[in-house]
Amino acid sequence: MKTQIVKVSLENPEYNIIHIAAEILKIGGLVAFPTETVYGLGADAFNPDAVRRVFEAKNRPQDNPLIVHISDYNQLMEITDFIPEVGKIITNAFWPGPLTIVVKASKFIPTVVTGGMETVAVRMPKNKVALKLIDSLGKPIVGPSANLSGKPSPTTAEHVYQDLNGKIDLILDAGPTEIGVESTVVDITVQPPLILRFGGLTREKIEQLIGDVETTEDLKYIRRSPGTRYRHYAPEAKVVLVERGDALTFNRLVQKYIDEGFKVGYIVYSDEIKPDKNLVGKIVSKDIEIYAKELFQSLRDLDMQNVDVILVESVEAKGIGTAIMDRLIKASKP
User: Fold this and answer.
1) 290: domain CATH number?
2) pLDDT of 230 strictly over 90
3) Are residues 242 and 183 in the same domain?
4) What residue numbers bound the domain in which 153 lies?
5) pLDDT tens sequence across 260-294
């Protein structure tokens, strides 16, 4: 299979390009598309064979559920028979946007989408290309990150091509994504709601609207969301976390790994840590939202430079920093 990359306007998606992409989806093909978070891998959510191709292309475990993407509220009624009041409140406030809700799945959702569970994850992306694509197909699409499972998520079309060339039909290239980390997943089948995965919508904003939400380590619940159980977001290189501003530990680890014969890279942002000019790496912005946007790109860039170890400076786990630390902790696991 030859994978095509087609540029598309982010603000005014060209009808003919979107139409071609939708036609591919209609016959069971796979199309990578931009969202505000990361690039997604699209397939007709009601075509089990097409959805299985998503798992095959990504080498994704079959019990890792997919997020269904919709373009209007009417499509939500095809996915679930009941939306709790709290779900109506948060979707009215944050859709389209980086919020995924977990609801009871309707009988029409193929079990391959849900990982065999009775719940399904769904969101409405805030991206005109994605919304036009779903509109043109006329039904919801699945949209996991368009990368090989376990790798850093793709924030550009080039990242998708690096991972999935020859495995999917088409990549719609609308430039880098806006947020750079995946959506926040909230289970609204329980009270109080549970955040199953931190992401582009902060806990603080959710709680300002609906009051306290909780987190859990209970497998019964966390398995309802992607990105919670398997090794995720990881480059080929070993990721080692360093506390913010801890130059002493940073320099000690640099020397340790160099002495052991490893090529060392870094991602840092504070004034206290000053990497040697002979090291390869990236000094990212102190602006936490820019840090989030550049994280996966930075990890992939350092992989391309064949480093063995990446020392990454931690951020404070609040706001979108919570999502950043979630990704870094998962990436640093063996």
Assistant:
1) 3.40.50.11030
2) no
3) no
4) 4-222
5) 999 999 999 999 999 999 899 999 999 999 999 99
